[in-house]
Amino acid sequence: xxFAPVIAVGELQPVFAWLYGLLQSIxxxxxxxxxxxxxxxxxxxxxxxxxxxxxxVWWERKIAGHIQQRFGPMRNGWHGWYxxxxxxxxLLQKEDVLVxxxxxxxFFWAPVIGFVAAFAAYVVMPFGKGLIVADLNxxxxxxxxxxxxxxxxxxxxxWGSNNKYALLGGMRSAAQVVSxxxxxxxxILTVILYxxxxxxxxxxxxQSGLFFNWFIFRIPFGPIAFITYITAATAxxxxxxxxxxxxxxxxxxxxxxxxxxxxxAMFFLAEFINMFTVSAIAVTLxxxxxxxxxxxxxxxxxxxxxxxxxxxxxxFRWTYPRLRVDQLMEFAWKILVPITFANLIxxxxxxxxxxxx
Amino acid sequence: MAVGDVGIVFWILSVAxxxxxxxxxxxxxxxxxxxxxxxxLFAVAGIFILLGAEFLAAAQVLIYVGAVAILMIFAIMLTSxxxxxxxxxxxxxxxxxxxxxxxxxxxxxxxxxxxxEGIWSHLELARPLPSDNILTLxxxxxxxxxxxxxxxxxxxxxxxxxxxxxxxxxxx
Lengths: 357, 172
What we know:
The complex is a heterodimer of chains A (357) and B (172).
Chain A: H1 13-25, H2 30-67, H3 83-92, H4 104-120, H5 139-160, H6 164-195, H7 200-205, H8 221-236, H9 248-251, H10 261-286, H11 298-319, H12 325-353
Helix pairs in contact in A: 2-3, 2-10, 2-11, 3-10, 4-5, 4-10, 5-6, 6-8, 6-12, 8-10, 8-12, 10-11
Chain B: H1 3-26, H2 30-50, H3 54-78, H4 80-84, H5 94-115, H6 133-142, H7 146-167
Helix pairs in contact in B: 1-2, 2-3
């Protein structure tokens, strides 16, 4: 294993080179230096994502407000811009209410695992040209693997709370995520068929050029794969119309009903990070990743495109009603799965016949 | 990465695997057992990474943690009698079982020691594989090992259909 890429993270290269020199001058070397460098890199990504999640919470509330013909948060700062910051500080100092009948270790570890799983995907996320923590050759497969821990955290939260609403929420989420993983992975496979590589960097590189090289414009299979991916991804992120794990009206709040204070904040933040993750994957696979015209830096293209997909998910949430449990399963297995498989076969045929650019 | 570091990671993973595997067969709460199983499978994926087989590691997590373990937990949650009860994981054969385990561990130890003399001193298992090893794997699955691959698929399909036939009601 080679840890050299840490020192060459694209546009941030000078900063890391400086840090590397500084750490070397105080006598760190070998494995310890690598570990410290990775910790610094991880801390940077973590910080950026936390700020981003806070922004997304505010944005969602504003969009929800405007869709429902009200303003949303308005009190703190210009259009309430530091409302979520205030909320976060409030949650940090709140009492951690613990149920006596909880399953102690499970209750404690559930938010931790959910939080870690939400951030783990960003190891292979290409934020910009050369701006990636580690370009693993299993890239997208790695993301699919680590995000399964989100389900486990939901199940643990549902079980550990020892509450029937929480348990129902956890079970519903397990059934839902396992079902929707199938169309999601098959949609991704359609892209992999054309890139011939699982590495996120290679996937972005293969869509270089003008926007008609993006995978979504590979007619006819590209748009279909994008639509099925976004549908499945909405379900994976547990968002309306697929938010039965935490359907407020039937389950109070679902799996996180017994959580309060800091632990609730971790679930809440992880949820928004997950939404950003599925959008970032959609951008990387279908919308050319950080590719764009050169008058803006590549990471800004990536961020802008991802926020547009996030906006799409938010519009879904505030326009569509929630599906019933049986409709949800029927939709996954009887509609989405056949469509994605048919699409994969069509894409394979086009690839074999050479009808693509 | 230096050999010593690989050794440290290997030992951490091994201890995690053994401890969590023991927890799977000894804890009295069946949900905790399932979680310990997840930890065990995850640590095995870590071993795969050490061996340079990233694809296997991802497949391990995706299939065992993401599907098999979740289905187990799902089954545990749906079985209400199982959920609240403290189970006992031992019966009158426990002592005999322990003796057999110790015996086979010793046999394995001796065999490994004979076969790989000094495997503990240089853990040079982490040879870097070529970065296109997934490509090679895919090619072999589609050419040389196409028949076993298809046979396994049909076996899995038969198991799935069998499960559905067993589970569905007669006149539903």
